[in-house]
Design a protein that fits this description.
399 residues, alpha+beta, Nucleotidyltransferase, domain 5, 7-stranded antiparallel sheet, 5-stranded mixed sheet, 11 helices, globular
């Protein structure tokens, strides 16, 4: 099993400058390789340059520019070229399937924040010292950098990455831990229904409040963005305003991740089986299509885009996709079972008699069966139906 660890680094002033130069030079390599691919496609009869050809040129590039390219790890530069090759592979795949292509773009100095080292010991070295001793990681061209290791690293370190977030530096490790040790069996199962009014509701009727981190920080983010818009481009004041906006967004992201981790961990510890809806979040948050006015060509009718934009912000603020991804990862490491079921009619089907009509849900929160008169909270009914569908599907798979 592959697991990822992320630790804050404490570089000295000189090491921070060297790390910034490493990102700058890898960004230059990325942009140069991208320019070569574009020129070959445009001017040499639409020739496509591959990773193998560009990787073979690295030795000459390092010899030609030893100050900027020759001082860094050869493997990390290969990883940067693989990163560009992966971006082009995704571009051609989208073209093939008729999606929006999104051709790879050149990276600016502040838009290239990660350098990968494919192997521990090749251009980098993780110092696996005990917890009570200062941990360090060594990078070629930088030196030994102190690391704030807040938890023990389990398993063999496979890859190491350097990541810059604002003015902070992080080291990201991936380890191979083998088969995880499962948690003790609890004999409990649960179905969950995620939403906006409540972050999630369990089949037992318990509600987890929606923290709405993005909405709470919206006023501060709006003020920071307005201050940014008044700054002159290229000025020192604008750079500070950009950092302020980025800092606020990072705080909201960390709060959202913290809530998702804690909620998922509680579910995994207390239940052996967890069922949830197989939501298509991208489709749910899509912008409504325009409605042309048939009587007046060139004009459009109201399509509810304003109300839908507010709903889309709430969906993004809840972070359902991140939570479900974290839930699946924690369940896998704990030996639990998570199953996604079809979400259709889960909040309209009566759990007592099975009658399914949209009139069973007169309001957002209330469920009242028009056939048998059963009343309950609509989200709790949906979670209960999700659990039953998950158990049925589980039994079919085991059979």
């Amino acid at each position: 099993m592959i697991r990822t660890y992320k630790f804050l680094m404490r570089p000295t002033v000189g090491q921070a400058i060297a790390l910034g130069e490493m990102l700058r030079d890898h960004c230059s390599l990325y942009n140069g390789a991208l320019q070569e691919r574009r020129d070959a496609y445009r001017h040499v009869s639409k020739t496509s340059v591959k990773y193998r050809e560009q990787s073979a040129q690295l030795k000459d590039i390092r010899a030609y520019d030893p100050e900027r390219q020759g001082r860094w790890s050869f493997s990390s530069q290969q990883a940067t070229l693989r990163r560009l090759d992966k971006a082009f592979a995704g571009f051609f795949r989208r073209v093939q399937y008729g999606e929006r292509p999104g051709c790879p773009r050149f990276r600016g100095a502040t838009w290239f924040d990660t350098v990968d080292f494919p192997k521990d010991g090749d251009g980098c070295r993780w110092d696996s010292t005990p917890h009570d001793v200062v941990t360090r990681v060594r990078f070629q061209g930088v030196g030994h950098v102190k690391v704030n290791q807040h938890r023990a690293v389990v398993g063999d370190v496979k890859t190491i990455s350097v990541k810059r977030e604002g003015r902070k530096w992080f080291v990201v490790l991936t380890t191979d831990q083998g088969e995880p040790e499962p948690l003790p069996v609890t004999g409990r199962v649960v179905g969950i229904d995620v939403g906006i009014a409540h972050f999630l509701t369990t089949s037992g009727g318990e509600h987890v409040a929606n923290p709405r981190h993005g909405r709470k920080a919206a006023a501060r983010v709006r003020a920071a963005q307005q201050a940014l818009s008044r700054c002159r481009r290229g000025s020192k004041r604008r750079r500070k305003a950009v950092e302020r906006v980025a800092t606020l967004h990072r705080k909201v992201r960390r709060q959202r991740l913290d809530h998702a981790h804690k909620t998922a961990l509680g579910l995994v510890r207390e239940h052996d089986f967890i069922a949830h809806e197989d939501l298509k979040i991208r489709n749910m948050s899509a912008t409504p299509a325009p409605k042309p006015d048939p009587e007046t060509p060139g004009t459009f009718l109201l399509n509810g885009a304003t109300a839908k934009a507010g709903l889309n912000r709430s969906i993004a603020d809840a972070g359902w996709g991140v939570f479900l991804a974290i839930l699946n990862a924690k369940a896998e490491s704990a030996g639990r079972e998570v199953m996604a079921v079809d979400p259709r009619n889960t909040s309209r089907r009566c759990p007592e008699c099975g009658h399914t009509v949209k009139e069973n849900r007169p309001t957002q929160e209330k469920f009242h069966c028009v056939s048998c008169g059963h009343s309950a909270h609509a989200d709790a009914v949906g979670a209960l139906n999700v659990l039953r569908a998950g158990l049925v599907r589980r039994g079919a798979h085991q059979a």
